[in-house]
Amino acid sequence: MADRVVRRIPEPTVVRLPVYQRALLTLSTCGVQTVSSAELAEAAGVNAAKVRKDLSHLGTYGTPGTGYDVSFLLGQVRRELGLDREWQVVIVGMGNLGHALARSQTFATQNFRAAALFDIDPGKIGEEVAGLPVRHVCELAKVVGGISRSIGVIASPASAAQDVCNRLVEAGTVAILNFAPAILAVPPSVQLRQVDFSVELQVLAFYVAHPEVTPEPQDAPLSGL
Amino acid sequence: MADRVVRRIPEPTVVRLPVYQRALLTLSTCGVQTVSSAELAEAAGVNAAKVRKDLSHLGTYGTPGTGYDVSFLLGQVRRELGLDREWQVVIVGMGNLGHALARSQTFATQNFRAAALFDIDPGKIGEEVAGLPVRHVCELAKVVGGISRSIGVIASPASAAQDVCNRLVEAGTVAILNFAPAILAVPPSVQLRQVDFSVELQVLAFYVAHPEVTPEPQDAPLSGL
After folding, report:
1. ipTM, 2 decimals?
2. What is the CATH class of B2-80?
3. Which one, out of A89, A140, A190, B185, has a CA that is 20 to 30 A from the CA of B52?
4. B116 CB-near residues (< 8 Å, 6+ apart)
5. Contact B217 A188 (CB under 8 A)
Protein backbone atom coordinates (compact mmCIF):
# COMPACT_ATOMS: atom_id res chain seq x y z
CA MET A 1 0.00 0.00 0.00
CA ALA A 2 2.78 2.43 0.93
CA ASP A 3 4.32 1.89 -2.49
CA ARG A 4 1.07 2.79 -4.22
CA VAL A 5 0.96 6.12 -2.36
CA VAL A 6 4.63 6.83 -3.13
CA ARG A 7 4.14 5.95 -6.79
CA ARG A 8 2.11 9.09 -7.33
CA ILE A 9 4.61 11.59 -5.88
CA PRO A 10 5.42 14.03 -8.69
CA GLU A 11 9.09 14.89 -9.25
CA PRO A 12 8.72 18.59 -8.31
CA THR A 13 7.39 17.40 -4.92
CA VAL A 14 10.32 14.97 -4.54
CA VAL A 15 12.73 17.84 -5.22
CA ARG A 16 11.02 19.96 -2.53
CA LEU A 17 11.16 17.21 0.14
CA PRO A 18 14.86 17.93 0.93
CA VAL A 19 13.96 21.61 1.37
CA TYR A 20 11.18 20.75 3.84
CA GLN A 21 13.55 18.38 5.53
CA ARG A 22 16.12 21.15 6.07
CA ALA A 23 13.45 23.58 7.34
CA LEU A 24 12.07 20.93 9.71
CA LEU A 25 15.58 20.08 10.99
CA THR A 26 16.13 23.74 11.83
CA LEU A 27 12.74 23.99 13.58
CA SER A 28 13.43 20.78 15.49
CA THR A 29 16.87 22.01 16.59
CA CYS A 30 15.22 25.21 17.88
CA GLY A 31 12.80 23.11 19.95
CA VAL A 32 9.69 23.98 17.90
CA GLN A 33 7.08 21.21 18.31
CA THR A 34 4.36 22.11 15.80
CA VAL A 35 4.47 24.13 12.59
CA SER A 36 1.71 25.53 10.38
CA SER A 37 1.85 25.09 6.61
CA ALA A 38 2.34 28.88 6.35
CA GLU A 39 5.37 28.79 8.66
CA LEU A 40 6.86 25.78 6.90
CA ALA A 41 6.19 27.48 3.56
CA GLU A 42 8.09 30.58 4.66
CA ALA A 43 11.03 28.56 5.95
CA ALA A 44 11.15 26.57 2.70
CA GLY A 45 10.59 29.52 0.37
CA VAL A 46 7.45 28.16 -1.30
CA ASN A 47 3.74 28.98 -0.86
CA ALA A 48 1.55 27.38 1.80
CA ALA A 49 -0.87 25.69 -0.63
CA LYS A 50 2.07 23.91 -2.24
CA VAL A 51 3.34 22.73 1.14
CA ARG A 52 -0.06 21.23 1.99
CA LYS A 53 -0.35 19.57 -1.42
CA ASP A 54 3.22 18.22 -1.30
CA LEU A 55 2.77 16.76 2.19
CA SER A 56 -0.60 15.25 1.26
CA HIS A 57 1.37 13.06 -1.19
CA LEU A 58 3.01 11.53 1.90
CA GLY A 59 -0.44 10.94 3.39
CA THR A 60 0.15 13.73 5.92
CA TYR A 61 -2.49 16.40 6.44
CA GLY A 62 -1.64 18.07 9.75
CA THR A 63 -4.18 19.03 12.42
CA PRO A 64 -6.48 22.00 11.60
CA GLY A 65 -5.63 24.98 13.85
CA THR A 66 -2.43 23.30 15.13
CA GLY A 67 -0.46 22.31 12.05
CA TYR A 68 2.10 19.56 11.69
CA ASP A 69 3.99 17.77 14.45
CA VAL A 70 7.59 18.75 13.63
CA SER A 71 9.36 15.63 14.84
CA PHE A 72 6.79 13.21 13.33
CA LEU A 73 6.86 15.02 9.98
CA LEU A 74 10.66 15.22 9.99
CA GLY A 75 10.91 11.46 10.54
CA GLN A 76 8.38 10.82 7.79
CA VAL A 77 10.13 13.06 5.24
CA ARG A 78 13.53 11.57 6.10
CA ARG A 79 12.17 8.04 5.68
CA GLU A 80 10.67 8.95 2.29
CA LEU A 81 14.02 10.40 1.24
CA GLY A 82 15.80 7.20 2.22
CA LEU A 83 17.74 9.12 4.89
CA ASP A 84 16.99 6.50 7.54
CA ARG A 85 20.00 4.60 6.12
CA GLU A 86 23.55 5.66 5.25
CA TRP A 87 24.71 6.41 1.69
CA GLN A 88 28.34 6.15 0.58
CA VAL A 89 29.34 8.96 -1.77
CA VAL A 90 32.19 8.39 -4.21
CA ILE A 91 33.63 11.45 -5.95
CA VAL A 92 35.56 11.11 -9.21
CA GLY A 93 37.58 14.12 -10.37
CA MET A 94 39.46 15.98 -7.66
CA GLY A 95 39.89 19.39 -9.25
CA ASN A 96 38.47 22.47 -7.50
CA LEU A 97 34.90 21.19 -7.83
CA GLY A 98 35.78 17.75 -6.42
CA HIS A 99 37.54 19.41 -3.49
CA ALA A 100 34.52 21.64 -2.83
CA LEU A 101 32.16 18.66 -2.95
CA ALA A 102 34.36 16.46 -0.73
CA ARG A 103 34.40 19.21 1.91
CA SER A 104 30.66 19.90 1.64
CA GLN A 105 28.67 20.44 4.85
CA THR A 106 26.30 17.81 3.44
CA PHE A 107 28.55 15.11 4.85
CA ALA A 108 28.32 16.51 8.36
CA THR A 109 24.57 16.99 8.50
CA GLN A 110 22.93 14.18 6.53
CA ASN A 111 23.25 10.42 6.22
CA PHE A 112 25.71 10.81 3.37
CA ARG A 113 29.30 9.76 3.96
CA ALA A 114 32.20 10.66 1.68
CA ALA A 115 33.53 7.15 1.10
CA ALA A 116 36.20 7.42 -1.61
CA LEU A 117 37.84 10.00 -3.88
CA PHE A 118 39.40 9.33 -7.29
CA ASP A 119 41.40 11.14 -9.94
CA ILE A 120 43.58 10.18 -12.88
CA ASP A 121 46.31 12.81 -12.34
CA PRO A 122 49.38 11.17 -10.73
CA GLY A 123 50.10 14.52 -9.03
CA LYS A 124 46.86 14.22 -7.06
CA ILE A 125 46.98 10.53 -6.10
CA GLY A 126 47.73 10.12 -2.39
CA GLU A 127 46.74 13.70 -1.54
CA GLU A 128 44.43 13.79 1.47
CA VAL A 129 41.13 15.69 1.13
CA ALA A 130 38.58 15.83 3.94
CA GLY A 131 40.41 12.99 5.64
CA LEU A 132 40.36 10.68 2.61
CA PRO A 133 43.20 9.75 0.26
CA VAL A 134 42.74 10.48 -3.44
CA ARG A 135 43.05 7.14 -5.26
CA HIS A 136 43.78 6.39 -8.90
CA VAL A 137 40.63 5.78 -10.94
CA CYS A 138 41.97 2.32 -11.90
CA GLU A 139 41.25 1.32 -8.28
CA LEU A 140 37.60 2.40 -8.64
CA ALA A 141 36.16 -1.02 -9.50
CA LYS A 142 37.88 -2.67 -6.52
CA VAL A 143 37.06 0.04 -3.96
CA VAL A 144 33.50 0.88 -5.08
CA GLY A 145 32.66 -2.77 -5.74
CA GLY A 146 33.10 -3.36 -2.01
CA ILE A 147 30.71 -0.57 -1.02
CA SER A 148 26.96 -1.05 -0.74
CA ARG A 149 24.49 1.76 -1.42
CA SER A 150 26.99 3.95 -3.24
CA ILE A 151 26.22 7.22 -5.03
CA GLY A 152 28.79 8.25 -7.64
CA VAL A 153 29.53 11.95 -8.17
CA ILE A 154 31.22 12.86 -11.46
CA ALA A 155 33.33 16.03 -11.20
CA SER A 156 35.64 15.19 -14.10
CA PRO A 157 36.02 17.11 -17.37
CA ALA A 158 33.21 16.47 -19.87
CA SER A 159 35.52 14.44 -22.11
CA ALA A 160 36.09 11.83 -19.37
CA ALA A 161 32.57 11.78 -17.95
CA GLN A 162 31.10 8.83 -19.89
CA ASP A 163 34.14 6.68 -19.12
CA VAL A 164 33.90 7.56 -15.43
CA CYS A 165 30.16 6.85 -15.55
CA ASN A 166 30.75 3.41 -17.12
CA ARG A 167 33.29 2.55 -14.43
CA LEU A 168 30.87 3.58 -11.67
CA VAL A 169 28.02 1.56 -13.21
CA GLU A 170 30.23 -1.53 -13.65
CA ALA A 171 31.30 -1.22 -10.01
CA GLY A 172 27.64 -1.40 -8.96
CA THR A 173 26.86 2.25 -8.21
CA VAL A 174 23.07 2.67 -8.01
CA ALA A 175 22.89 6.44 -8.50
CA ILE A 176 25.03 9.02 -10.27
CA LEU A 177 25.14 12.79 -9.91
CA ASN A 178 26.90 14.30 -12.91
CA PHE A 179 28.48 17.76 -12.69
CA ALA A 180 30.30 17.44 -16.04
CA PRO A 181 28.66 19.26 -18.98
CA ALA A 182 27.97 16.04 -20.90
CA ILE A 183 24.86 13.95 -21.59
CA LEU A 184 25.52 10.50 -20.13
CA ALA A 185 24.03 7.13 -21.02
CA VAL A 186 23.23 4.78 -18.12
CA PRO A 187 21.25 1.54 -17.82
CA PRO A 188 17.61 2.04 -16.69
CA SER A 189 18.46 0.52 -13.30
CA VAL A 190 20.81 3.43 -12.46
CA GLN A 191 19.41 6.77 -11.27
CA LEU A 192 21.10 9.72 -12.98
CA ARG A 193 20.85 13.43 -12.27
CA GLN A 194 22.79 16.25 -13.81
CA VAL A 195 23.86 19.63 -12.46
CA ASP A 196 25.13 21.94 -15.17
CA PHE A 197 26.42 25.47 -14.50
CA SER A 198 25.88 26.48 -18.12
CA VAL A 199 22.28 25.21 -18.16
CA GLU A 200 21.49 27.11 -14.96
CA LEU A 201 22.90 30.36 -16.38
CA GLN A 202 20.96 29.87 -19.62
CA VAL A 203 17.69 29.25 -17.77
CA LEU A 204 18.26 32.45 -15.77
CA ALA A 205 19.06 34.34 -18.99
CA PHE A 206 15.82 33.00 -20.50
CA TYR A 207 13.70 34.30 -17.63
CA VAL A 208 15.46 37.69 -17.59
CA ALA A 209 14.98 37.97 -21.36
CA HIS A 210 11.29 36.99 -20.97
CA PRO A 211 10.13 38.58 -17.72
CA GLU A 212 6.51 37.84 -18.69
CA VAL A 213 7.12 34.06 -18.35
CA THR A 214 8.15 34.05 -14.66
CA PRO A 215 6.71 30.72 -13.58
CA GLU A 216 5.54 31.16 -10.02
CA PRO A 217 6.43 34.52 -8.50
CA GLN A 218 5.56 33.39 -4.98
CA ASP A 219 8.24 30.74 -5.00
CA ALA A 220 12.01 30.97 -4.86
CA PRO A 221 12.55 28.53 -7.71
CA LEU A 222 14.89 25.77 -6.72
CA SER A 223 16.78 23.98 -9.42
CA GLY A 224 14.66 20.96 -10.12
CA LEU A 225 11.28 22.58 -9.55
CA MET B 1 2.54 37.94 -30.63
CA ALA B 2 5.94 36.38 -29.93
CA ASP B 3 5.48 37.13 -26.24
CA ARG B 4 2.12 35.36 -26.19
CA VAL B 5 3.75 32.22 -27.59
CA VAL B 6 6.65 32.44 -25.13
CA ARG B 7 4.28 32.97 -22.22
CA ARG B 8 3.12 29.38 -22.43
CA ILE B 9 6.56 27.70 -22.37
CA PRO B 10 6.56 25.38 -19.33
CA GLU B 11 9.61 25.46 -17.07
CA PRO B 12 10.68 21.84 -17.84
CA THR B 13 10.85 22.87 -21.51
CA VAL B 14 12.88 25.98 -20.63
CA VAL B 15 15.33 23.80 -18.72
CA ARG B 16 15.70 21.50 -21.76
CA LEU B 17 16.36 24.34 -24.22
CA PRO B 18 20.04 24.65 -23.14
CA VAL B 19 20.42 20.90 -23.70
CA TYR B 20 19.00 21.17 -27.23
CA GLN B 21 21.22 24.19 -27.77
CA ARG B 22 24.33 22.21 -26.86
CA ALA B 23 23.31 19.27 -29.06
CA LEU B 24 22.57 21.63 -31.98
CA LEU B 25 25.91 23.42 -31.51
CA THR B 26 27.70 20.08 -31.76
CA LEU B 27 25.73 19.09 -34.89
CA SER B 28 26.38 22.50 -36.45
CA THR B 29 30.12 22.25 -35.71
CA CYS B 30 30.15 18.85 -37.42
CA GLY B 31 28.54 20.38 -40.52
CA VAL B 32 25.17 18.62 -40.10
CA GLN B 33 22.44 20.65 -41.87
CA THR B 34 19.20 18.91 -40.88
CA VAL B 35 18.29 16.80 -37.88
CA SER B 36 15.29 14.59 -37.11
CA SER B 37 13.52 14.80 -33.77
CA ALA B 38 14.79 11.26 -33.07
CA GLU B 39 18.40 12.26 -33.68
CA LEU B 40 18.07 15.44 -31.64
CA ALA B 41 16.38 13.40 -28.90
CA GLU B 42 19.28 10.97 -28.77
CA ALA B 43 21.88 13.76 -28.67
CA ALA B 44 19.94 15.50 -25.87
CA GLY B 45 19.13 12.35 -23.89
CA VAL B 46 15.32 12.75 -23.97
CA ASN B 47 12.63 11.04 -26.04
CA ALA B 48 11.60 12.20 -29.52
CA ALA B 49 8.00 13.04 -28.63
CA LYS B 50 9.26 15.41 -25.94
CA VAL B 51 11.63 17.10 -28.41
CA ARG B 52 8.77 17.72 -30.84
CA LYS B 53 6.49 19.03 -28.09
CA ASP B 54 9.22 21.26 -26.60
CA LEU B 55 10.11 22.77 -29.97
CA SER B 56 6.44 23.31 -30.83
CA HIS B 57 6.39 25.76 -27.89
CA LEU B 58 8.83 27.86 -29.93
CA GLY B 59 6.47 27.66 -32.91
CA THR B 60 8.87 25.27 -34.67
CA TYR B 61 7.54 22.06 -36.20
CA GLY B 62 10.25 20.88 -38.62
CA THR B 63 9.59 19.48 -42.09
CA PRO B 64 8.02 15.98 -42.25
CA GLY B 65 10.55 13.49 -43.63
CA THR B 66 13.41 15.99 -43.39
CA GLY B 67 13.40 17.24 -39.83
CA TYR B 68 14.69 20.53 -38.49
CA ASP B 69 17.14 22.93 -40.16
CA VAL B 70 20.04 22.84 -37.67
CA SER B 71 21.32 26.39 -38.11
CA PHE B 72 17.82 27.96 -38.14
CA LEU B 73 16.77 26.02 -35.04
CA LEU B 74 20.03 26.79 -33.26
CA GLY B 75 19.53 30.52 -33.87
CA GLN B 76 15.94 30.31 -32.67
CA VAL B 77 16.81 28.42 -29.48
CA ARG B 78 19.69 30.80 -28.73
CA ARG B 79 17.44 33.83 -29.22
CA GLU B 80 14.82 32.33 -26.89
CA LEU B 81 17.54 31.73 -24.29
CA GLY B 82 18.68 35.34 -24.53
CA LEU B 83 22.07 34.15 -25.84
CA ASP B 84 22.00 36.65 -28.70
CA ARG B 85 23.40 39.16 -26.17
CA GLU B 86 26.26 39.00 -23.67
CA TRP B 87 25.78 38.35 -19.95
CA GLN B 88 28.25 39.44 -17.29
CA VAL B 89 28.72 36.85 -14.57
CA VAL B 90 29.85 37.97 -11.12
CA ILE B 91 31.03 35.27 -8.70
CA VAL B 92 31.05 35.88 -4.95
CA GLY B 93 32.99 33.42 -2.79
CA MET B 94 36.31 32.27 -4.18
CA GLY B 95 36.80 28.98 -2.35
CA ASN B 96 37.21 25.77 -4.35
CA LEU B 97 33.72 26.07 -5.82
CA GLY B 98 34.24 29.70 -6.88
CA HIS B 99 37.52 28.74 -8.53
CA ALA B 100 35.86 25.86 -10.38
CA LEU B 101 33.03 28.13 -11.58
CA ALA B 102 35.37 30.96 -12.65
CA ARG B 103 37.34 28.49 -14.76
CA SER B 104 34.23 26.85 -16.24
CA GLN B 105 34.18 26.02 -19.96
CA THR B 106 30.85 27.86 -20.00
CA PHE B 107 32.71 31.13 -20.36
CA ALA B 108 34.53 29.95 -23.47
CA THR B 109 31.54 28.54 -25.33
CA GLN B 110 28.52 30.71 -24.55
CA ASN B 111 27.68 34.40 -24.35
CA PHE B 112 28.53 34.46 -20.65
CA ARG B 113 31.58 36.43 -19.58
CA ALA B 114 33.20 36.16 -16.15
CA ALA B 115 33.14 39.85 -15.25
CA ALA B 116 34.21 40.10 -11.59
CA LEU B 117 35.19 37.87 -8.64
CA PHE B 118 34.73 38.70 -4.96
CA ASP B 119 35.65 37.29 -1.57
CA ILE B 120 35.86 38.58 1.99
CA ASP B 121 39.09 36.79 2.96
CA PRO B 122 42.05 39.26 2.88
CA GLY B 123 44.29 36.31 1.93
CA LYS B 124 42.39 35.90 -1.34
CA ILE B 125 42.01 39.56 -2.37
CA GLY B 126 44.27 40.38 -5.31
CA GLU B 127 44.75 36.73 -6.29
CA GLU B 128 44.22 36.25 -10.03
CA VAL B 129 41.78 33.55 -11.15
CA ALA B 130 40.96 32.94 -14.82
CA GLY B 131 42.59 36.27 -15.64
CA LEU B 132 40.52 38.28 -13.15
CA PRO B 133 41.61 39.76 -9.81
CA VAL B 134 39.66 38.68 -6.71
CA ARG B 135 38.21 41.88 -5.17
CA HIS B 136 36.94 42.55 -1.66
CA VAL B 137 33.17 42.20 -1.38
CA CYS B 138 32.96 45.82 -0.15
CA GLU B 139 33.78 46.84 -3.74
CA LEU B 140 30.82 44.83 -5.07
CA ALA B 141 28.30 47.72 -5.21
CA LYS B 142 30.73 49.93 -7.12
CA VAL B 143 31.94 47.27 -9.59
CA VAL B 144 28.62 45.48 -10.23
CA GLY B 145 26.66 48.75 -10.27
CA GLY B 146 28.63 49.67 -13.40
CA ILE B 147 27.78 46.43 -15.21
CA SER B 148 24.62 45.96 -17.24
CA ARG B 149 22.94 42.56 -17.61
CA SER B 150 24.76 40.97 -14.69
CA ILE B 151 24.11 37.51 -13.26
CA GLY B 152 25.33 36.99 -9.69
CA VAL B 153 26.65 33.59 -8.63
CA ILE B 154 26.77 32.91 -4.89
CA ALA B 155 29.48 30.42 -3.92
CA SER B 156 29.86 31.63 -0.34
CA PRO B 157 29.15 29.66 2.85
CA ALA B 158 25.43 29.41 3.69
CA SER B 159 25.83 31.81 6.61
CA ALA B 160 26.93 34.66 4.30
CA ALA B 161 24.60 33.89 1.39
CA GLN B 162 21.69 36.24 2.23
CA ASP B 163 24.08 39.15 2.84
CA VAL B 164 25.83 38.48 -0.49
CA CYS B 165 22.42 38.18 -2.16
CA ASN B 166 21.31 41.55 -0.74
CA ARG B 167 24.50 43.22 -1.97
CA LEU B 168 24.00 41.78 -5.47
CA VAL B 169 20.35 42.90 -5.57
CA GLU B 170 21.23 46.41 -4.35
CA ALA B 171 23.91 46.63 -7.05
CA GLY B 172 21.27 45.94 -9.70
CA THR B 173 21.89 42.25 -10.49
CA VAL B 174 18.90 40.89 -12.42
CA ALA B 175 19.48 37.18 -11.82
CA ILE B 176 21.11 35.12 -9.10
CA LEU B 177 22.34 31.54 -9.10
CA ASN B 178 22.81 30.34 -5.54
CA PHE B 179 25.13 27.42 -4.77
CA ALA B 180 25.01 27.98 -0.99
CA PRO B 181 22.72 25.62 0.96
CA ALA B 182 20.42 28.43 2.13
CA ILE B 183 16.92 29.59 1.13
CA LEU B 184 17.29 33.19 -0.06
CA ALA B 185 14.74 36.00 -0.21
CA VAL B 186 14.83 38.25 -3.29
CA PRO B 187 12.46 40.88 -4.70
CA PRO B 188 10.04 39.54 -7.36
CA SER B 189 11.98 41.44 -10.06
CA VAL B 190 15.08 39.30 -9.49
CA GLN B 191 15.30 35.80 -10.98
CA LEU B 192 16.68 33.27 -8.49
CA ARG B 193 17.76 29.68 -9.00
CA GLN B 194 19.41 27.35 -6.54
CA VAL B 195 21.80 24.45 -7.01
CA ASP B 196 22.20 22.38 -3.87
CA PHE B 197 24.50 19.34 -3.64
CA SER B 198 22.62 18.00 -0.64
CA VAL B 199 19.23 18.29 -2.38
CA GLU B 200 20.54 16.46 -5.44
CA LEU B 201 21.91 13.61 -3.31
CA GLN B 202 18.64 13.37 -1.40
CA VAL B 203 16.57 13.24 -4.60
CA LEU B 204 18.80 10.44 -5.88
CA ALA B 205 18.46 8.62 -2.56
CA PHE B 206 14.68 8.98 -2.83
CA TYR B 207 14.56 7.36 -6.27
CA VAL B 208 16.92 4.54 -5.26
CA ALA B 209 14.83 3.92 -2.14
CA HIS B 210 11.64 3.95 -4.28
CA PRO B 211 12.60 2.31 -7.58
CA GLU B 212 8.91 2.04 -8.49
CA VAL B 213 8.61 5.87 -8.74
CA THR B 214 11.18 6.40 -11.53
CA PRO B 215 9.57 9.31 -13.33
CA GLU B 216 10.37 8.83 -17.02
CA PRO B 217 12.70 5.92 -17.70
CA GLN B 218 13.33 7.00 -21.28
CA ASP B 219 14.95 10.25 -20.17
CA ALA B 220 18.25 10.96 -18.53
CA PRO B 221 16.76 13.28 -15.91
CA LEU B 222 18.48 16.62 -15.86
CA SER B 223 18.36 18.68 -12.71
CA GLY B 224 15.44 20.98 -13.26
CA LEU B 225 13.28 18.62 -15.23
Report:
1. 0.89
2. mainly alpha
3. A190
4. B88, B90, B91, B132, B135, B140, B143, B144, B147
5. yes
